[in-house]
Design brief:
By secondary structure, this protein is mainly alpha-helical. The chain is about 50% helix and about 10% strand. Helix 3 crosses helix 4 and helix 4 runs antiparallel to helix 6. It starts with a helix and ends with a helix.
C-alpha cells in the first residue's frame, strides 16, 4: 500500500494477503527486539507461529522450513521492518489508492481482522475483498490454489 501511495504511476494493481490496515496492538507486543537480536528471527517465528498460521492445516515439514527461512533474515532487518509496520496506519489513506486491489484474508485472522478488511472494501474505490471462511493468518500458504484462483479473476 505504501508503494501505491508513494508511486501510483508504478503500481498497476495490488494483491493483499492478510495485510492489515494497521497492525493490531496485540501483534506489536509479540515482537521483542532484544529476543530477535539474541536468538534470531527463527525464535520469533516459532514463538508466534500459532498467531501467524493455522498450524493444523500445514505439514510439520513446511512449518520447520518456514521457521528456518524466517531465521535467515538478519535481525536488524526484521527489527526495522517491524518498527515500520508498528507505526503504520493506512486507514486515512485508503481512498487515495486508485488501482485495483484484491484483499484476501481469513475470517479468523487476528492480524488482518474482518473489520479491517471491511474498511478496505468501504474506503478503497477499486477494492475487492475475499474472505476465506474458517481460516486465520497465512492463507497464501494454506490455500495456495484458492488464493491463485482469485488473483486470476
Amino acid at each position: 500500500m505504501a508503494l501505491a501511495l508513494a508511486h501510483p504511476d508504478r503500481v498497476a494493481s495490488l494483491t493483499l494477503c492478510n495485510t492489515p490496515v494497521r497492525l493490531p496492538e496485540e501483534k506489536k507486543d509479540l515482537f521483542v527486539p532484544g529476543e530477535v537480536r539474541k536468538f534470531g528471527v527463527g525464535f520469533w517465528a516459532r514463538k508466534t507461529l500459532h498467531g501467524r498460521i493455522d498450524v493444523h492445516r500445514m505439514a510439520p515439514e513446511w512449518i520447520e522450513w518456514s521457521i528456518a527461512e524466517n531465521d535467515r533474515t538478519p535481525a536488524h532487518i526484521a527489527i526495522a521492518q517491524h518498527a515500520e509496520m508498528s507505526r503504520g496506519d493506512f486507514f486515512p489513506h485508503l481512498g487515495k489508492i486508485k488501482v485495483p486491489v484484491l484483499a484476501m484474508s481469513g475470517t479468523g485472522s487476528r492480524t488482518a481482522p474482518v473489520e479491517q478488511m471491511n474498511q478496505i472494501r468501504e474506503h478503497m474505490p477499486n477494492a475487492r475483498v475475499v474472505f476465506f471462511e474458517g481460516y486465520g493468518q497465512g492463507i497464501a500458504f494454506m490455500a495456495p490454489e484458492r488464493s491463485e484462483e482469485h488473483t486470476s479473476e
